[in-house]
Amino acid sequence: MRQYCKHCHFPAKTCLCSAVKRVHSTVKVVVIQHPKEVHHAKNTVRLLKLSLQNFTVLVEDEKDFRTQLINCLSLAAHPAVIYPSPSSQPLEQINRASNHDLFILLDGSWKQAYGMWCRNAQLHHLPQYHFATPPDSTYSIRHTQRAKSLSTLEAVAYTLSVSDSCDVTPLHNLQNAMQVHWQGPSEHQR
Ligand SMILES: [Zn+2]
User: Fold this and answer.
1) Distance from first CA to last CA of the chain, Å, rounded?
2) How far is the CA of 19 from the centre of ligand 1 (A)?
3) Which of 8, 33, 106, 119 is a plausible cystine mate for 113, CB 3.0–4.6 Å?
């Protein structure tokens, strides 16, 4: 039977605990996760859970999902959403006076994210932002349809690097550590 680390929940052989460093952001991050992403081994949200303090994951098919989302929104003074909608503004041109204290991101493929966007009409009333000049992704163990797409961890790190003064380097380091494990001995690859 495969042994799992009690803390990071990765297989014991690829335990990432030594690479986890806590990141404290002032801005809260909520990721709405598509149910199909929850058990995906290469999903980077599990890394965010280990390292990011001011962070919540809401899985879209949980029965109290709607209540939890409404709660998160009601606790924030100036919530915003990262989604490339027809009316989204470039995050890079964010006005500091907008004082966003919560960013919501969607975790799934482009198609899944579009579905989540359509189903969660509460988000349509929030200020919306997209990445105009995102950094190159260094996440290479999972292929996506679009060359320019970031992992969810990278999208969160980029959002915080633009909107918060916290150092997001530990997030990137953790993602790199995960990739090194996957690219290691062939028994670790899928
Ligand atoms: Zn561990």
Assistant:
1) 17
2) 9
3) 106
